Amino acid sequence: MQIKDKTTIRMGFSPCPNDTFILDALVNNKIPIPDNLHFEWIIEDVEKLNKRAMNQDVDVTKLSFGVVPSIINSYQLLNAGSALGKACGPLLIYNKKPLELESATVGIPGWNTTAHFLLNRFYPNLVTKKEMLFSDIEDALVQGDIDLGLIIHENRFTYEQKGLKLLADLGEKWEKSTNQHIPLGGFAIQRTFPQDLKLQINELIRKSLQFARNHPESSKEWIKSHAQETKDQIIKQHISLYVNEFSMDLGSAGQSAVQHLLHSQLESKNLQKNILPLFIN
């Protein structure tokens, strides 16, 4: 889409503190926006963004690395803006431990999330699942609507306060079994875009994150206005955990971790290995 001499980019991201911290400067014009670009912003839960990507309904978007096998022919991954690291993976929690796990109902934050892939990998016998908004899972456990909950994002900092207990850290299981960092999510861009535009948008995300690091108080209120949990300490913990050196640039180690996850996903579905360039570089 063109507005006069500008290219309009429909860009999606989640309301979670790591995304809003990274993109505050870009969204709120705290860094220069190139004259050739105009952005339209879409702020939605990551599973909704996953589905948008599957429908090619967005130009650039944050998404779960778990959805990459379904969108790989249409999108490439950017190197900036990712959530990837150690000790940051999804947690499987409970209120009253089920007598038989196989008969338990598990609340999941989306069928296309990395969390759901890891659940299938480590607990293949957990087959009764209920998809729900990630922020509703804790309360559903407390109320007895589900037996187990697969939690992501800031819920790892709040579940114990509600009397819930940890059954398994799926990120830890992944790290121990693969000796790789756990790739959670990143930004992807339509393959049909010119390479120079892909690199330009990647650089804007990187510059936006650099601004946030240089001016950590600048985005505070805007982050809080979108966050599920608004306590300053929880927001700070969230950003500290999910925004790291891989968020600035995946680098060879980060790209290797994402490739390993993708190959594991393709193998689990008996699909051929990807032959298209996965990353923009």
Order of helices and strands: EEHEHEHEEEEHEHEEHEHHHHH
Query: What level of helicity do the residues show?
Result: 25-40%
| CATH topology (level 3) name of the largest domain | D-Maltodextrin-Binding Protein, domain 2
Arithmetic mean of pLDDT: 94
CATH homologous superfamily name of the largest domain?
Periplasmic binding protein-like II
In the CATH hierarchy, what is the architecture of the largest domain at level 2? Answer: 3-Layer(aba) Sandwich
Class of the largest domain in CATH?
Alpha Beta
Structural class: alpha/beta
Q: Strand count, sense and closure of the main sheet?
A: 7 strands, mixed
Number of self-contained structural domains: 2
Number of continuous helical runs: 11
Q: How would you describe the shape? A: globular
Share of β-strand residues: 15-25%
Question: Segments where pLDDT lies below 50 for 5+ residues?
Answer: none
Explain what you see:
This protein has 281 residues and is of the alpha/beta class. It has two domains: 170 residues, D-Maltodextrin-Binding Protein, domain 2 (3-Layer(aba) Sandwich); 88 residues, Periplasmic binding protein-like II (D-Maltodextrin-Binding Protein, domain 2, 3-Layer(aba) Sandwich), CATH 3.40.190. It contains eleven helices and twelve strands. Strand 2, helix 1 and strand 3 form a beta-alpha-beta unit. The longest helix has 20 residues. The radius of gyration is 18 Å and the shape is globular.
